Amino acid sequence: MNQKYKVLFLIVFFQSCSSEVKIAESPNESITKNNIVFYQTEFDSIYFTKNKYVIENWLNYSELSQIINEINNNNLSALTDNKIYLKRFFKGIKNTIPDMIKEPEIISRITVIETDILKFESDLSESYSDEIQKLKMTKKVNNAFSNLNFQIDMLVEKQKNKQLDSIN
Fold first, then answer.
1. What's the rounded Cα separation, in Å, for the pair 152 and 90?
2. Contact 49, 154 (CB under 8 A)
3. Rounded to whole angstroms, what are the CA distances from 3 to 7, 8, 9, 12?
4. What's the CA gap between 102 and 122, in Å, rounded?
5. Which of 87, 95, 105 is nearest to 60 (CA)?
6. Domain boundaries, the chain
7. Domain 47-167 falls in which CATH fold?
8. What CA–CA distance (Å, rounded) separates 79 from 117?
9. Could you read off the pLDDT of 6-60 as tens digits, one per residue?
């Protein structure tokens, strides 16, 4: 029985090693590459908050946005061997959330981003990441950032509705 698992593992391992990634340079043309070129990968699906006035004075949010932008541009130097700074940064961002949106929903979304970025940093520092893994982690961070922005919009909308209800 144990021998079957070893053989199955080897088959899966060799299949995954030989896989290639297809990257489209234009909508009508696709090419095959062994490595992912990040500038050819688009991350236009990031959701940005529509309530800019809530975050315009939140400096840590701007810094988080810059970190994510650097990740999307494949400039991972801010992540590499930088766990102490990242932990301090995320502690700071949680402590500086504007009062209007300082709710558990926002704190939990920031914690998810923190977890994803720290995992990404750990993988990069340990050299466990290949290009496909980097792309997956980049998309995961973008998804978490989009969820934070969406939650900000939902909280602002909820507060606006409460104010309207209290007027009526």
1. 17
2. no
3. 6, 9, 10, 14
4. 29
5. 95
6. 47-167
7. Four Helix Bundle (Hemerythrin (Met), subunit A) (1.20.120)
8. 8
9. 544 445 444 444 333 333 343 333 333 344 444 444 555 788 899 999 999 999 9
